[in-house]
Amino acid sequence: MQMGNLSKFIISGVMVAFLAACSTTGETTDATASTQAAQVAVDNTSLAEAQALIEAAAAAKAAAAEAKALAAAAVQAEAKAAADAAKAAADAAQQAAANVAQQQQQAQEAAQALAHIIYFDFDQSTIKAEFRTALNGHAAYLSQNPSASIVLEGHADERGTREYNIALGERRGNAVSRYLVVQGVSIDAIEVVSFGEERPVNAGHDSASWSENRRVEIRYINY
Amino acid sequence: MRVKKIVQLAQRAPKPISFSVFLSTVFTLLFSFSAWSSNLVIEITQGVDNPVPIAVVPFQWSGDKALKDDVALVVDADLERSGQFKSLKRSLMLSFPYQTEDVYYRDWRYLSTEYLVIGQVLPTNSGGYQVDYQLFDVQRGEPIATGRFSGGKNDLRALGHSVSDAVYEALTGLRGAFRTRIAYVAADKKVNPSYYKLLVADADGYNAKEILKSNQPIMSPSWSRDASKLAYVSFETNRPAIYVQDITTGKRERIKSFKGINGAPAWSPDGGKLAMVLSKDGNAEIYVLDLTSKRLTRVTKHYGIDTEPSWSVDGKHILFTSDRGGKPQIYQVTLDSGWVERLTFEGDYNARGSLTHDGRFLVLVSRHDTRFHIAVQDLQRGTMSLLTQTSLDESPSVAPNGSMVIYSTQQGGRDILAAVSIDGKVKFNIPANEGVVREPAWSPYLN
């Protein structure tokens, strides 16, 4: 059937035009191909048919142009989508990193906010219940941050002999160290240094001053 | 208590020349310091009931310029500080003799003086001084002792201390310890809360010299047997380490800096070893370091605190403080067998024990009714007696002749040094004119 052939032909022309539009080098060939196809049709058919074919070719040309525009838009959209996706990923990564840093910062601040001084009774190195929360906090931070390390500075009040007080200060430092190790802190993250009665916080000579001086100070070397 | 009189006639001849030359050398070394710090001031607070009256006449000097120091006043102050003598005021003296032929015993008897010291100062060829002295028994009307000392141009006070030593020995039979020194730690919290100094001064508090200054604690000075070096603990690296420093040259060496405690150095009687406390093996234990071979030997093994080592006179035992029985007490370990025995049983806090030169008395810190006192335990009789009644007394250090114990206490809320005789009868305070002073260590004899 003539019309069947014609429509087939037109479709072929549109396809060719579309393919040409889609190809990167087809910018100049798309309309030319349609015109050539129409020209062949003119040679083989009647004028009316030819007219119809020319119109069809024109329509095909317009469709091709449209298709070309569509295709270009599609490529652009795809690229944009990819770029958007990449950016989103980057943003997400950055956000995640920021979150980690923030969490680390928060954890560090939380560790810093914990009590850093543990007080003791006279001639005692027993850790009193009231300091366990703070010590647990330090233990959690230290076990989650293997690069962190601390010095436990042991101190005594001025009563008693100086070298005995050095040993007493160390015993207090060791008591805190053992507590932290039991909570999961690596022994390598802890150093105990005793200052005995040599570095009092309070220079007074009464029981209030003494109770301030019997202490272990937790000092972070690395967070 | 009366001083014991020497019965035999003392030597009249001057001391051998070689001794003078040796003294001169020692003095030149000891006194060639440039940086002098402020002095300590001695206040005698208690003496014996009946001190022996003695007169020390101003020493004759015929040089052009007045002497920097009054040698007779140095001797006067030394003898008074012993608590056993009461010296006659110059304004009451009827004459100032400096030669035997000018001494009129009757004049001195009239002033109720029992003993008389005269002397003169002469210049030496090397620009220093020579001091001649004579000691007389006024009641018997006869000379007891005479002697001569010489030293450099800055040694006048030291020469005076040598005269004091000779006079004291002639009258008591006990070697004098006036020409010795004390090392101590000073801190001035008002000036700077982290200001620490190690100083060395003459036994009478004069001629204080800075050995070390730090913004971290300095502790536990200990003299070498020849009194030329100090071992001490310094926290200058924020951790304790044991150092040995030559006090004349200032040259020093870091001996030990293990992880943990590095403390309480104590020189052995033969001078070749250093006892110390290390906690490198877990907790405070006593070790002995051979200074020649550098070999380190662990002496104690106990989970309790073992600290404050101090040598027996023969160097075969080490006394130490341990809470192995629950509370701190003094123990003694025999070095070759490792045998440990407890020495103190009275009270629940006895620490920092050390022995007198004859090994008879154990001097320590003892707590009674929450107060810390200096106490002495007679090892022959086993009795303990308190030497001080003040609180927070610590760091006792015995003079090389066993006569006095220097220690640190508190007065008006600050640390001062004080001394008490081994019988508790004589006391004096040595406040610093600035800051706080503590941890005195009495030197051995200087020669």
What structural keywords apply?
heterodimer; A: alpha+beta; 4-stranded mixed sheet; 4 strands; B: mainly beta; Rossmann fold; Neuraminidase; 2 domains; 6-stranded mixed sheet; 5-stranded antiparallel sheet; 31 strands
Describe the protein:
The complex is a heterodimer of chains A (223) and B (447). Chain A has two domains: 2-80, no CATH class; 114-222, OmpA-like domain (60s Ribosomal Protein L30, Chain: A). Chain A has six helices and four strands; from the N terminus they run H-H-H-E-H-E-H-E-H-E. Chain A has helices spanning 2-22, 29-44, 47-113, 132-144, 162-182, 207-213, and strands spanning 117-119, 149-155, 190-196, 215-222. In chain A, strand 2 (149-155), helix 5 (162-182) and strand 3 form a beta-alpha-beta unit. Chain A is rod-shaped and about 125 Å long. Mean pLDDT of chain A is 81; it is low at 13-35 and 40-45. Chain B is mainly beta. Chain B is 11% helix and 41% strand. Chain B is built from four helices and 31 strands. Chain B has helices at residues 17-30, 71-81, 105-110, 156-172, and strands at residues 43-46, 52-56, 60-61, 85-87, 115-123, 129-137, 142-151, 181-187, 196-202, 209-214, 218-223, 229-234, 241-246, 252-256, 262-267, 273-278, 285-290, 296-298, 306-311, 317-322, 329-334, 340-342, 350-355, 361-368, 371-378, 384-386, 394-398, 404-411, 414-421, 427-430, 436-442. The A-B interface holds A 158-164, 166-168, 170-171, 174, 191-196, 198-199, 203, 205 and B 189, 217, 219-220, 235, 238-240, 259-261, 263-264, 277, 279, 283-284, 305, 307-308, 321, 328, 349, 351-352, 365, 367, 372, 392, 394-395, 410, 413, 439.
